[in-house]
Write a structure and sequence with these properties.
This protein is mainly α. It is 73% helix and 0% strand. Helix 1 runs antiparallel to helix 2 and helix 8 packs antiparallel against helix 16. It is a multi-pass membrane protein.
């Protein structure tokens, strides 16, 4: 079940919040736990007990570590989480590569991938590490820890929330729940839904149609347009989902960390990673890069740490060589920026550095879209063909597609400016019924448009769902 599905929008969410607002305060957290487990069971019924048992093991390890100060108990907790991730996400990858390397024709029983396991693992590891670093200050009862892990808005695809960020909110948030916070959460959710349905899904239909065609039938123009559209699709798909998660949390009284900040206006790859999937970048920094020595060692060690962290980041995204190469690709650019690129680009106009960064990032997204590295090379060769003809597949590029692509580019590159101007304008307006009603009506119109598009197209993938 994803937030943009009919069953969530028309059944799960309305029932959940109706009960949530009606029941006594002391029952709200129990209702969240029950509903979150139901939410996960709906999408992965065979893995629900693994999720619960892994939480029990984490909590037992935390208690024993705090009581007896046994480091090996702490490492058991860490390794159990890493082990589950390695088995469920990477078993097939390692076996396939071993069989390929040994030229074996043997078949093997494939392991199914539990939804959200990458995000869950990072959250659970961060709890154990922060518990150790805080000398037990984060110790809580099991129900509080279970709620933190299974809280359904961030359960499947983040943002990657740390326990210390919401530990106080689990028990003290109720006094912050009012009509204003609920409306702000609802507005954030609907904006995210609009980004997902009206932009990402519309672009995704054309992108899929382009990339399903034989590479020999595609011109340079088609590949470049398809890749550009995919860059906007993945941004509005994932940022829209993050907006929905943050909005749902807000409606419950939780404040989740932001996950995106207009990444396509970044002037270099370093800045891009401060704006894209922010909670993942911060996790990698605090739990991998800094423990490895960060930039406090020699320059060579710093470069090694950067590339290693991004190799791990790439592998975290998916069990294939595509993602490993994608991680190395970004890691190498980060090293090059530290070596000389930053000095060169600092002298260039902003629009050139923004555009060049977008091109670099978009070429990297090709590794997300294709099935293997050989396909990626074929598409790169197609780009170099310099064939700008519109062939018989040009009917794929409808007016609706071009309008959506233009809107996506507008929101991505100058949306930050409009957001500031709009917020300043709204804050300067007196609070009156016209302002409140106008805001509510516009949001409801966006919701109805999104719902109508969802019913009409039936096309509703979610790119990061598989991670």
């Amino acid at each position: 079940m994803v937030f943009s599905s009919i069953i969530f929008l028309l059944y799960f969410a309305p029932i959940f919040f109706l009960v949530y607002y009606l029941i006594p305060q002391k029952l709200k957290n129990s209702w969240i736990i029950f509903s979150s487990l139901l939410f996960y069971w709906w999408g992965a019924p065979s893995f629900i007990f693994i999720l619960i048992l892994s939480c029990v093991l984490d909590y037992i390890c935390a208690l024993f570590y705090l009581k007896y100060n046994l480091k090996f108990i702490y490492y058991i907790g860490i390794l159990s989480n890493v082990g589950l991730l390695l088995y469920f996400k990477y078993y097939n990858f390692f076996i396939e590569n071993f069989l390929t390397y040994t030229s074996s024709n043997e078949t093997f029983l494939r392991v199914a991938l539990p939804i959200g396991i990458s995000f869950l693992t990072f959250q659970k590891i961060s709890y154990l590490v922060d518990l150790k670093r805080s000398n037990g200050e984060l110790q809580v009862n099991f129900s509080k820890y279970l709620l933190y892990v299974v809280l359904f808005p961030q359960l499947i695809a983040g943002p990657i929330v740390r326990f210390k960020e919401i530990s106080n909110q689990i028990t003290d948030r109720f006094k912050t729940i009012n009509y204003n916070t609920v409306y702000l959460g609802l507005r954030r959710f609907i904006i995210g839904l609009g980004k997902k349905i009206l932009i990402a899904n519309v672009l995704g239909e054309t992108v899929d149609a382009i990339f399903i065609l034989p590479i020999t039938e595609l011109s340079t123009f088609a590949v470049l347009l398809g890749l550009t559209a995919y860059s906007f699709q993945i941004y509005f798909d994932f940022s829209g989902y993050s907006d929905m998660a943050i909005g749902l949390g807000k409606m419950m009284g939780f404040t989740f960390p932001e996950n995106f900040n207009f990444p396509y206006i970044a002037k270099n790859i370093t800045e891009f990673w401060k704006r894209w999937h922010i909670t993942l970048s911060n996790w990698m920094r605090d739990y991998l890069y800094i423990p490895l020595g960060g930039n406090q060692k020699s320059e060579v060690r710093t470069y090694f740490n950067l590339i290693l962290v991004f190799l791990i980041s790439g592998f975290w995204h998916g069990a294939s060589w595509n993602f490993i190469v994608w991680g190395a690709y970004h890691g190498i650019f980060l090293v090059l920026e530290r070596l000389f690129l930053s000095k060169l680009t600092s002298k260039l106009p902003s629009f050139i550095t923004i555009l060049s960064t977008f091109v670099i990032v978009s070429l990297g997204w090709l590794l997300f879209r294709v099935d293997n590295l050989s396909q990626a090379l074929n598409y790169i060769q197609a780009i170099n063909n310099t064939d700008l003809q519109m062939n018989n597949w040009s009917e794929l590029f409808t007016n609706k597609f071009y309008f959506t692509l233009f809107t996506a580019a507008l929101l991505s590159f100058i949306g930050a400016f409009f957001e500031v101007q709009l917020n300043n304008h709204l804050s300067s307006m007196p609070s009156n019924k016209i302002k409140i009603v106008g805001s509510f009506v516009s949001i409801m119109c966006l919701f109805l448009l999104s719902l109508g598009e969802l019913f009409a197209s039936g096309f509703n993938p979610f790119i990061y769902f598989k991670f």
